[in-house]
Amino acid sequence: MKKKKIFFGLCRGYALFLLFFGCGFFNGTISQASDKSYVGAEKCAECHESEYKNFTEYAKKSNSFHSIQIMKKGLTNQELKSCFECHTTGYGESGGFKSENETPHLKNAGCEVCHGPGSIHVETNDPDDIKGSLTAKDCEKCHNSTRVGAFRYKPLIYGGAH
Ligand code: HEC
Ligand code: HEC
Ligand code: HEC
Ligand code: HEC
Q1: Which terminus of the chain has a lower count of CB atoms within 10 Å, N or C?
Q2: Ligand 1 center to residue 7 CA distance, Å?
Q3: Residue with CA at minimum distance from ligand 3 atom 36
Q4: What is the pTM of this model?
């Protein structure tokens, strides 16, 4: 595993070298291989069946795209996009959610919103390649009382009062 990491490190160095010296020919493929991206919760199920089962059965995250869809009608496109940050996986990050059509496997907030992008771990199966121990900080990006309060103001208005 160590060897692989060093190899990726070298690749990244090489990609930067190419970038700076204007010869970007191999650049795309090399940096893609070394950057972590999101694979979606279903991929994790292959090896973590019970976590996946519990997650899809009990965690509302596994259905979080639905939550914004039911609010869609009252929202502008721009407002709808603001929901993606918390209700999908990796929106705005490389290899993350783009749209329901392009990246259907990332439309819900999946395993990787907590454990981080899993593309490398899925290949190596190395626990060191995925975030294992988490702290409250890993949740605050989305479970932030002021931000959630502010953002949910509008959803609540449209959320069934009438
Ligand atoms: C091809 C098999 C495989 C796939 C696919 C896979 N894992 Fe793993 N994962 C493992 C193995 C093997 C371990 C180490 C043994 C264990 O803890 O079960 C592990 C360990 C972990 C750990 C514990 C890490 C630690 O520090 O102890 C987490 C968290 C994890 N995986 C999350 C994920 C997530 C999230 C996905 C999907 C993005 C995923 N895994 C996909 C095989 C896999
Ligand atoms: C990427 C954003 C994001 C991150 C990071 C995140 N959550 Fe969430 N979480 C959500 C969203 C969105 C919902 C609501 C889903 C819905 O109802 O549509 C939710 C719901 C929940 C719930 C409600 C109960 C349920 O059934 O799901 C709990 C508890 C929770 N999250 C805990 C956590 C914890 C603990 C962490 C950190 C380890 C965390 N979340 C990290 C977005 C996030
Ligand atoms: C900063 C992160 C964040 C953003 C942005 C966000 N949400 Fe949420 N949303 C959450 C979290 C966290 C929960 C679950 C915890 C809670 O109830 O506060 C949630 C829960 C929900 C629920 C379930 C309500 C319930 O009480 O079960 C709906 C519906 C929802 N959000 C819609 C939206 C819509 C629509 C948008 C965009 C306008 C949006 N959210 C933007 C984080 C966010
Ligand atoms: C809301 C955040 C959150 C989500 C989403 C989440 N996990 Fe975890 N996961 C945790 C926490 C917290 C731990 C315990 C870490 C620790 O012991 O410090 C954990 C531990 C694990 C472990 C280590 C073994 C164990 O059970 O303790 C594996 C494997 C794992 N998660 C896989 C997954 C998979 C697969 C998914 C999606 C199907 C997933 N997780 C979704 C928060 C999350």
Answers
A1: C
A2: 22
A3: 83
A4: 0.85
